[in-house]
Structure formats: structure tokens, C-alpha cells
Amino acid sequence: MGLLLLEFLVLVKFWGKKVYQDSQIFKTYGIAFNRNSFHLFANGLAIGLFFTLGLFFVEGVLGWVSLQSAKVSLLRIIAEGFISALGVSFAEELFFRGWLFDELKRDYSLKIAAWANALIFATLHFLKPLGEIMRTFPQFPGLIMLGLTLVWAKESARSRLGIAIGLHAGLVWGYYILNVGEIVTYTNRVSPWITGVDGNPVAGLMGLFFLGILAFLFRKKLEKVREGGVIKN
User: What's the CA gap between 55 and 156, in Å, rounded?
Assistant: First the structure.
């Protein structure tokens, strides 16, 4: 995967110069290494981490999961999880909300581009045998919701990708800490369709509900930005 990412970075640079005569294609995609981008990344990271931990906290209060001490070094899990989450979020956001979303926006309205991006994002994460597709189907609408949320997060930050990278990383990081650290145990008091099939919160109604809240907040923020005349439909 690391080699594929490096290949993509090289090819996308070539794509920008040869197809669009854009020598700063990464900036066009919303990538910038400055204080404002770091601030957006940090905000997104905090929001994503807060929502993930908040989801499991609520489920713990309801008695659907039990929380326990980490079975391995928590500091190691936190560090490993952050590095892993950062790598995954940077690669996926640059591809989906960077290159792919930019291509869609060139030919379609923001609404169509956002939904197309989310559907492609969900579909490419759902390539599995038919039996697994049927068993884990609740994950698909969750992935669509996540894709829309990340698009709206980026656009609400005036097309800066830092907020989406941070948000994606925070969601992955929080789940990594709880899952790999074996901090959460499901009590099986409710159906996995509520808490998440295979322990994946995106594949459950509670996860979808929390993602819905997150999507609503970023959608409202985007509407305020558009009302200010920054983004056209």
C-alpha cells in the first residue's frame, strides 16, 4: 500500500501538469503545509476522536458494551494507532476527497459530485464476496454517510483537505485504540445490527446515528459558507 501511495503521488503530479497545466495540483486538491492547515487537521482530529469515544461511552452507559483496562501498553497502542490512522486518512482523503472529488466537481454540481464521491467511496470499500456483502450490509449506508460527511467537512473549510484528513484520522484512531487495545467488550444485550456487525460501529444503527449527527453539523456549516458566497452549487 505504501508503494501504491508513492506511485499515486507521482502520477497525480504528472496528471496535473499534463492534463490541466497545473504545477500546484496538490494545492488545488486542498493540501497545504501551513499553520492554518495544521489547525484544521487538529480540529478534525479532535472532533473525530471525540465522536468515536463518545459513541462507545454512550453504549457503555446503556450496558451494550463493557469497558476495561487495555491488555497491552496503552501508550504503544495510542502511538501505533495515530501513525496508522494518519497514513490511512492521508492516502484515502487525497485520493477520494482530493483527486476524485476534484475530477467530479469539474463536470458536475457540488451536490452531484458529493453524492457520486460518497457512493464510489462506499462501493470501493465494499468489494467482497456476495455472502459477506449481505451479512455486513449495514456498513454500506454508514460508508456513504461517512463519505458525505468528509466531503462536506472539506467544502465547509473552503476546499481545504486538512479538516477531512483530521476527521478521518480521529475516527480511525479512536476505534484503533479501543479495538486493538481490547478496551471494549460487547455484552450482546442488543443485536449487532445496532452496535455494529463484527464490532464495526459503522455497520450498526448507533454508528449510523452518530455519523448522521456529524454529517448534519458539517452540512449546516457548509450551508453557512455557501450563504456567504464562497462556494457555488
Answer: 24
Q: How far apart are CA 91 and CA 7, in angstroms?
A: 12
* pLDDT single digits (tens) 6-56: 999 999 999 999 999 999 999 999 999 899 999 999 999 999 999 999 999
pLDDT tens for each residue of 69-95: 887 889 999 999 999 999 999 999 999
Q: How far apart are CA 38 and CA 147, in angstroms?
A: 22
Confirm if 206 and 55 have CB atoms less than 8 A apart.
Answer: yes
Sign of CA dihedral 126, 127, 128, 130: positive
Q: What pTM value is reported for the model?
A: 0.94
Task: Count other Cβ atoms within 10 Å, centred on residue 72.
Answer: 11
CA distance 30 to 102: 10
- Cα gap 76→214, rounded to integer Å: 29
Residue 229 pLDDT level (bands cut at 50, 70, 90): low
Residue 199 CB neighbours (<10 A): 16
Give the chain's length.
233
Q: How far apart are the first and last CA of the chain?
A: 35
Helices 35-61 and 162-180 cross at an angle (nearest 10°) of 40
Q: Exposed/middle/buried for 62, CB within 10 Å: 0-12, 13-18, 19+?
A: middle
DSSP 23: T
For residue range 133-148, what is the model confidence (pLDDT) as tens digits?
888 888 999 999 999 9
By three-state DSSP, how is residue 202 classified?
helix
